[in-house]
């Protein structure tokens, strides 16, 4: 196993580049921090490196940052070390608990973010946590955004993500050129937490769509149809969706590698159900999707992509036939 060298970073004062939203955004004026190098995070960070920005990286598994380090990124030991030498810090981690740790932990970014810097979290997380981060950052003169993304590994790789942003609009304007390197559809949704609420809408839509997609393909298979031809026929019509056109072919190929992990999707559906309950909404379709994805997990597919729902539904069919 290749050993990566982790740089120990001394505390240095930052130039206060973000005293207003009218700032110059360029590799010469901004230092970028990045936390999280998973399925999507590594590609996203790579786009910033390709654009020439100096990037400081933290990841719990240093080996996952090896490609980024080879391209010029500096690997450090803690989120705090990232914040020490960054003007803008981005994070893309797995769970709300991970966000809590990298922000509020003893070695978290709040221990070192300088007044005028910006923290932007791409993780799909709880709206209340986004509001909490915003409030704490504001007290120390730091600006924050909740900016969950949609598009999976393909969108991250091709820099075609949809980015849903909550926080102050002036903060979005300050980092807009950086976000434009990662996505093609960047929308301001409102105050802190609004980005996360919008992502919940996204996940609710995907959940029901995924159920319909895998049941449709299972029906097509049982009817003896050519699945690739079925996808080509329905994918451009009223039933067309990102899922059928991008994940459908993967199902046909038997490729269930994760563009987005089942276990992370279950987490998202749980947050959506919590928020729905708080708003006195009973979303029965969402409940059903959550139950089906729990079955995917129970069958041992939690580390596969969300389209592994097909395997679980197929297995359930054969199980009920016995």
What structural class results from the helix and strand content?
Answer: alpha/beta
Query: Mean of the pLDDT scores?
Result: 92
Please report the number of helical segments.
13
Largest sheet: 9 strands, mixed
Rg, Cα atoms, Å:
21 Å
Number of strands: 9
Beta content: 5-15%
Shape: globular
- Residues in helices, as a percent range: 40-55%
SSE run: EHEHEHEHEHEEHEHEHHHHHH
Termini separation (Å)?
A: 46 Å
Describe this structure in words.
- The protein is built from 13 helices and nine strands.
- It has 322 residues and is α/β, with parallel strands linked by helices.
- Strands 1, 2, 3, 4, 5, 6, 7, 8 and 9 form a nine-stranded mixed β-sheet that branches.
- Helix 8 packs across helix 13.
- The chain is globular, with a radius of gyration of 21 Å.
- The termini are far apart.
Question: What is the topology?
Answer:
Elements: E1 32-35, H1 41-50, E2 55-58, H2 66-70, E3 74-75, H3 79-84, E4 88-91, H4 96-104, E5 118-121, H5 127-139, E6 143-146, E7 149-150, H6 152-157, E8 161-167, H7 169-179, E9 183-190, H8 194-222, H9 227-234, H10 242-253, H11 262-278, H12 284-298, H13 309-321
Parallel strand pairs: 1-2, 1-4, 2-3, 4-5, 5-6, 8-9
Antiparallel strand pairs: 6-8, 7-8
Helix pairs in contact: 8-11, 8-12, 8-13, 9-10, 11-12, 12-13
